[in-house]
Input
Amino acid sequence: MAEDQELTNKPLFRAIEPDDDLPEISEIESLCMNCHENGITRLMLTKIPMFREIIIMSFSCSHCHTQNNEVQFGGKFEDQGCRYKLQVKEAKDLNRQLVKSDWCKVTIPQLDFEIPAHGQTAVLTTVEGLLQRTADGLQALQPERKIAQPEIAAKIDAFIERLQAYSRGEEVFSMILDDPAGNSFIENPCFPNNDNSMTVEYYDRTSQDNILLGLEVDSDTITESNTDGKREKEEAEEENPNEVIVFTINCPSCLTPTQTKMMPIQIPHFKEVIIMATTCDACGYRTNEVKSGAGISEKGTRLTLNITSPQDMTRDVLKSETCVVLIPELEFEWHTGVSAGKFTTVEGVLTNVKDELQRFNPLGIGDSAVDDSKMKQTIAYLNEIISGERKTTIVLDDPAGNSFIQSDCLPDPDPCLLIEYYQRTDEQDDNLGIKDMCVENYEILEEEQKTDG
Output
C-alpha cells in the first residue's frame, strides 16, 4: 500500500537520475508495419533539464528485426505561439541550435520553400542540421524520379544544390520558425541582450490555431444548455465575490491533476486584484499569478526602487503581466508578455527573472555555452543582488498602471521609492488594445460587421 502511494506521488515526467533504478518504462505489444507480426513498443516519459518534457518511443520486431525510434513533446502547449525570424549572414549562424516541434512551420522566403506542420518530426538540431535533413529527405527518392519524371528530378537537384550552398554559408538567407504551440526555439548567443540577426515574436493564437491544436472546438458545437450553465455559474460567483474558487487543472510541470485556487483581494493603498495559486502535491510545483480586477488605469506607472539593504528585498511587489522590469546598471530589460503577473517580493521578482532567463534560453547555460557569455554574467549579477552583495536600482514600468511596490514609510514619502505617473504613448495604447475598444454604440458596430461579413 505504501509503495503504491509512493509511485502515485511521483511526477509523471521524471528526470533521469543515476539513483533511479526503475525509470518506469512501459512496454506495449503493437503491430509491425513491415511484416505485420506483433512487436514491442517501449515508452519512457522523461524530462530534459532546462527544457521540456519528452516521450521517448522505441519499437522493435523480433520477427523481421525492424527497429524505429522517435521522440515527441510530452509537455503542455505554451500560452502564446512563437515566431522566430533568423537572418543567416555568416557561418557561425549555421551552428545555432534550434528546437522544432511537430506543430512548427519552417519557411525560407528566398527559396519560396516551406516545411508544413507535421512535415518533419520534432527535432533538436542546428540550422545547418535542419537544412541537411531537408536536403536528405528530398534526395531519398531522386533515383526513382529521374526514371519516371526526369524534368522534375532536375529541378529538385537544382533546389538541393541551393540548400547545400546555404548549409555551407555561401549565401545569405532567412529562416522563419512559426509555432502556434510555442514549443520551438532558436538559440540566441547574445542572450539576454537583443540579437541583431534574429527577431522573436509571441502572439495570441487564432481560433483556427486552437482548433488545429485540439484546444478548442467549433463554436457551432456549443449547445445552448452549456451557455445557460455558464451563466448560472457566473451569477453564483457574483453573489459570493470573496469566496475562494477551486478548479482542477493538470500540473504544468508533471501533468498530474491538481487544484488551482482563485480569490479577489483588496491591496491597501492600491486596488483590487485577483490572485490565483497552484500547488502540486506530486512534484512540489508551486506558482501564483495575479490579474488586475480594476481594469487599465488612466495613466501608466513607473516605480523606481533603490535597493540599499536586505530589508528592501522583502518589500511586497505586485507585477502585472504588462509590466517591464528594468535594471539600469545592467542595461537589462525584461519585456511584457514573457512572464505572468506575480504577487511576491523584490527578491521573488529577481529570482523569477533569473529562472525565466534560464528557461527561455536553455542552451545558454549548458555544456555548449561559452564561459564568459553575457547570459552567465547576467545570472551572476542577479545572484549578487539576491544575496545582498550588490546594491542596485530596479524599475517597474507598467503602462497599464497595475503594478505596485510596498512603501515602508506610509503615509510619509519613501526616500528609496519613486512613483511616477505618465501619459501613455499611442504605441502603448495600441499594445494594450485600448484603440480597438468600442464603449459606445457597440451594438450598432457589431451589426454592421455582421452585415459586411
The longest helix spans residues 150-167. The two ends are 62 Å apart (CA to CA). The chain has a mean pLDDT of 79. The first strand starts at residue 25 and ends at 31.
